[in-house]
């Protein structure tokens, strides 16, 4: 059950990471739009300072065109402040959602690390001969999709009875070896697909040697 759960968690990680990338792109786009719509600071300062210049230095002339994006009474403050406030709130909500997604991904990765420790402990309990049988079974499963007692016995130069015994020991020690009966007669042996999703044979052997 633990291997099946992690197989599902791996799928969730992929979905979380894809969603994370999309939402980060949305945040970048919103921030870019905010930068483009923000009025230049130096223009606001020039406009504010002009109100304190002596009036007698200038001749009376026609009124200049007023920028409709800014009000006179508040000295150049954008009139669409509410829109910016709403956009800022949307940005904050996106950032919070990203933080939750990252936290979920971290929890899943932590569970994977925990499972790998469990794998290491289980395989360290195997004898050298049991590891050899498991490794051969794993390789044949990768090459052929499954195998049987007869093929394993020929590959390892052992009797079928010995192979049956070793497979039984592996299963008792919690190693996810699957046995499926074909046509109510022949037994097909394979490695749990959930285990193969979590770790390759090379990774398993490395974990055992830690």
Structure in a nutshell:
The chain has 210 residues and is mainly α.
Question: What is the count of DSSP helices, taking H or I runs of 4+ residues?
Answer: 8
The number of strands is 2
| Shape label | elongated
Helix content: 55-70%
Major sheet, described briefly?
2 strands, antiparallel
What is the SS-derived class? mainly alpha
Q: Termini distance?
A: 25 Å
Percent strand equals 5-15%
Determine the mean pLDDT: 76
Structure description:
It is a single chain. Helix content is 68%, strand content 6%. With 210 residues, it is mainly alpha-helical. It has two domains: 2-115; 125-209, Arc Repressor Mutant, subunit A, CATH 1.10.10.10. A hairpin with a 3-residue loop joins strand 1 (177-182) and strand 2. It is elongated and about 85 Å long.
Write the layout of secondary structure elements.
Elements: H1 2-37, H2 41-49, H3 81-124, H4 128-144, H5 149-156, H6 160-172, E1 177-182, E2 186-191, H7 193-198, H8 201-209
Antiparallel strand pairs: 1-2
Helix pairs in contact: 1-3, 3-8, 4-6, 5-6
Considering the chains and any ligands shown, give keywords for the structure.
210 residues; elongated; 2 domains; 68% helix
